[in-house]
Amino acid sequence: MQGSANLNIMIRAARRAGRSLVRDFREVENLQVSMKGAGDFVSRADLAAERIIREELTGARKTYGWLGEESAEVAGEDPTRRWIVDPLDGTTNFLHGLPHWAVSIALEHKGEIVAGVIYDPAKDELFAAEKGQGAWMNDTRIRVSARSRMIESIFATGLPFGGRADLPETLRDLARLLPACAGVRRWGAAALDLAYVAAGRYEGFWERELHPWDMAAGIVILREAGGLVEPLSGSGDILQGGAIIGANPEIFARFAGLLRDA
Questions:
Q1: Co-location of 181 and 249 in the same domain
Q2: In percent, how much of the chain has pLDDT > 90?
Q3: Quick one: pLDDT at residue 70?
Q4: Same domain for 102 and 154?
Q5: Pairing mode of beta strands 81-89, 65-68
Q6: Structural domain of 64
Q7: Do 131 and 196 fall within a single domain?
Q8: In this structure, are residues 235 and 212 in contact, taking their beta carbons and an 8 Å threshold?
Q9: Which string of DSSP letters, residue by residue, matches the chain?
Q10: Per DSSP, what are the bridge partners of residue 185?
């Protein structure tokens, strides 16, 4: 794909961070891990990847702001632009030796996500998009699936862990959705879930209590692949609210209706 200068910077940063993560993934049992909270860990590899990404992005665009999972937010000299970064989405998978995790980088301009990159180093799959330019996986253009029947559709979500308060809501969602569809997957990396909807591997995705860096890149990639993305409630700001729903256009209304009616 032919991308803008900004997108190429993002891709370079994601691939460089991915190489670092792969090296540590091979020695996952030796990682020095500290606990941030129930079910939420930060590793030496995670912090190293963020340092690499920050070096690449801020070195190339010194005036842009920064919002990352593992460091304090920085307001840039240019108040209209900021990077939104998750250096390792799927940390728990990573630390358990499960090869399903990703680097996620988004660029926000005037409150709108205009470019996104999600890189899965274990599978060497790089999902990328810019507003108005379509979505890609490596060198292949991607589109959401064309399935229109709920009973043939697969959906993805995250399941609450460690005593999170949204467990009753999620169980209610599953009770309504499971009888109506072909299955629900929980793979533990929201960024990749959104990328998989964009690539037609899932028909839809929803989750609560996410952070901006979990969703930002996936939002623009899914939209550029022809998908619909909204706040789960149907109103408000997705990034601030932290609850998201996305799907192909054929399924979206029925999918959203089941969850919102709940």
A1: yes
A2: 80
A3: 80
A4: no
A5: parallel
A6: 5-142
A7: no
A8: no
A9: ----HHHHHHHHHHHHHHHHHHHHHTTGGG--EEEEETTEEEEHHHHHHHHHHHHHHHHH-TTSEEEETTEEEE--SSTTEEEEEEEEETHHHHHTT-S--EEEEEEEETTEEEEEEEEETTTTEEEEEETTS-EEETTEEE-------GGG-EEEE----TT-TTHHHHHHHHHHHGGGSSEEE--S-HHHHHHHHHTTSSSEEEESS--HHHHHHHHHHHHHTT-EEEETTSSS-HHHH--EEEE-TTTHHHHHHHHHH-
A10: 156
**Total structural domains in the chain?**
2
Q: Which residues of the chain carry a pLDDT beneath 70?
A: 29-42, 262
- Predicted TM-score (pTM) of the model is 0.93
Tokens representing residue 221 in the block: 């990639």
Taken as a whole, the chain contains a residue count of: 262
CATH number, domain with residue 189: 3.40.190.80
Spatial separation of the C-alpha atoms in residues 250 and 150, rounded to whole Å: 9
